[in-house]
Amino acid sequence: MASKEAEVITDIAAMRNWSRSSKYQQQSPTPKTLALVPTMGFLHAGHLSLVRRARSLADLVAVSIYVNPGQFSPTEDLSTYPSDLAGDLRKLADAGGVDAVFCPRNLYDYVGGGKVRRGDDGGEERGAVSCVEGEHETWIRVEGLEKGLCGRSRPVFFRGVATVVAKLFNIVEPDFALFGKKDYQQWRVICRMVRDLNFSVEIIGSEIVREVDGLAMSSRNVHLSPEEREKALSINKSLSKAKFAAENGQETCQRMKLLIIQSITEAGGRIDYAEIVEQETLKPVEVITSPVVICVAAWFGNVRLIDNMEINI
Amino acid sequence: MASKEAEVITDIAAMRNWSRSSKYQQQSPTPKTLALVPTMGFLHAGHLSLVRRARSLADLVAVSIYVNPGQFSPTEDLSTYPSDLAGDLRKLADAGGVDAVFCPRNLYDYVGGGKVRRGDDGGEERGAVSCVEGEHETWIRVEGLEKGLCGRSRPVFFRGVATVVAKLFNIVEPDFALFGKKDYQQWRVICRMVRDLNFSVEIIGSEIVREVDGLAMSSRNVHLSPEEREKALSINKSLSKAKFAAENGQETCQRMKLLIIQSITEAGGRIDYAEIVEQETLKPVEVITSPVVICVAAWFGNVRLIDNMEINI
Question: Which of A173, B29, B174, B283 is most buried as measured by Cβ atoms within 10 A of its Cβ?
Fold first, then answer.
């Protein structure tokens, strides 16, 4: 397939206009379908697998590249989140091309004065806060699914994700949207939001793409030192062992979680959580009698990594 | 204009399909525009004025009729909220007709088991609760505007309104949506939600329609006894007096609010609130130096009424 030049769009109205005029064309009897791959950029093979999947599903493919301040708290790594727009555009072209790339400047700036705070400057009057400052005050809460796992240590994360994805859906108006299952809870939150708010978007969850040594692909991996990267393999290794054990009759979650925690800690990681939960509700289980997912978050140096494995028994 | 038979639609997919196929027609070079008038039914002249305004704005008009359990708490009047679908359809036809009427059965039932609780049955584990039971867990919060005025005594009201309006927007896909300014805070909440979530819907706020004696039209007026109805005129009278005073140099809000409270209380009403606030932010003001709105909520018997008047000085 010949690579093609994507239309790079930064303006919200231009993006919606592109979507509508591309989908509804005079000469075509039925509207074309559009798939959106929402990303925060610094693309890797995981993103590109989503793009390929998108092309197989829909007539048109758009990729959004936007580091969303709404999902970072002021103490998190918004300021160091990696970015490389030129590189991203090249990777997309090399991977066969997409039809449009949406790179908005600031999705929370309504009056020309919307600021983004990139670090913790202390005083803050409101309750849970993100890096969005200014007039924005509408947040989508998926009240059950947002609470556990990553929600415990990142209280503004899922409201920020749900809100920006709703904004992107309303701007891009896709028929499909693709999310990597590496961010398992995020995928479930979005599925629930789409159902509960009747968005006419079909959500596709795509399998985790790993490096050859098993590390789950993540834009944050670039911040790992070679030593940290080596230690971080303990996540995938311990998840694989636990999955093998579960598939061979080990049913007691407490023991499996302890083994994961022990193995990551011994490798030099700092555990945020290791949980075994139901796949749809993300409710913790004690004994595995139906499909579950093992979810892990752990720090290596200053880098927080997440990973998971589904167990379908 | 000849009245026409509206298409009455109860199914979500059928509603979206009607909207898309009506807007995008092969023979038409540009899509038709669609205006939505969201209502809870039991239509009165206020609703019909929104319908007329909608017809002047758009090629197609849809009215939704749905008593939204998401905006009622279990202690409120969901079970006694008046309804008369046959009468509503007749009124719409008599008023010149609309293109579609959307009357969904239960917008929160995703798995066939979604229940609605119509009264307070005591035990409730969650925090702020509405009359929605079951699997729904996504709520839109307009965190600033939802708090004051009606938000104080009705803590789940605006999240319920914002959420159901988002659902209706995603199902009906209108270009315009019309709201009465009688529900002033609701109108402002919806405007803010639309801006913050990038809905491509233009929101129109329409002036309050009053009975000849000045009472603001409301579906709940039907529950007033003749005596209560007479007493309720004190709302409009005291608002008019306060507006007159403000327009003639009275700037001190404290005194104006006291006069309103006194006048309604003396008439036999029970004040929920009387506030003078900025028109866009709904923040209370002490002295009137820019456009404000006086907002009142008061009980007459078991009926809670709201009303307001803008002062544009």
Answer: B174
DSSP H or E run through A61: strand A60-65
Give the mutation candidate from A140, A194, A202 for the B interface (greatest B CB count, under 10 A): A140
Cβ separation B197–A170 shorter than 8 A:
yes
Please report whether residue B214 resides in a domain. no
Pairing of strands B303-311, B292-300: antiparallel
Distance CA A188, CA A310 (A): 13
Query: pLDDT tens across B252-286, in order?
Result: 999 999 999 999 999 999 999 999 999 999 999 99
A172 and A69 inside one domain: yes
Q: How far apart are CA A15 and CA A28, in angstroms?
A: 21
Angle (CA) A92 A95 A97, round 5°: 55
Mark which residues 12-41 of A lie under 8 Å from B by CB: 12, 16, 24, 26, 29, 31
**Which residues of chain A neighbour B137 with C-beta distances below 8 Å?**
142-145, 192, 196
ipTM of the complex: 0.94
Sequence-ordered list of residues with C-beta below 8 angstroms from that of B226, at least 6 positions apart, any chain:
none
A61, A188: one domain: yes
User: Please, which residues have CB within 8 angstroms of residue B231's CB and are 6 or more apart in sequence?
Assistant: B267, B268, B269, B300
User: Which residues from B are below 8 Å from A16, CB to CB?
Assistant: 200
pLDDT tens digits, one per residue of A21-52? 999 987 777 899 999 999 999 999 999 999 99
Give the domain-ending residue among B206, B230, B255. Answer: B206
Q: Considering CB atoms only, which of A29, A110, A140 is closest to B195?
A: A110
With tokens 């968005």, the residue in question is A199
The mean per-residue pLDDT over the stretch A108-124 comes to 65
Q: How many domains does chain A have?
A: 2
- In B, which residues are within 8 Å of A192 by CB distance? 137-138
Burial of A272 (0-12, 13-18, 19+ CB in 10 A): middle
Q: Are B119 and A174 in contact (CB under 8 A)?
A: no
CB A209 within 8 A of CB A49: yes
Are the Cβ atoms of A138 and B163 closer than 8 angstroms? no
The predicted pLDDT at position B162 comes to 98
Joined tokens for residue A260? 């994961």
User: Could you say which DSSP state residue B5 is in?
Assistant: P
- The pLDDT tens digits of the residues spanning A150-195 come to 999 999 999 999 999 999 999 999 999 999 999 999 999 999 999 9
Cβ contact (<8 Å) for A143 and B137? yes
A281 touches B: beta carbon within 8 Å: no
Which residue from A minimizes the CA distance to B158? A138
Q: Does any domain span residue A211? A: no
Mark yes or no for CB contact B26/A29 under 8 Å. yes
Q: Are A279 and A272 in contact (CB under 8 A)?
A: no
Mutate to test the interface with A, among B64, B138, B192, B202 (most CBs of A within 10 A): B138
Q: What CATH number has the domain bearing residue A196? A: 3.40.50.620
The amino acid present at A209, given as its one-letter code, is V
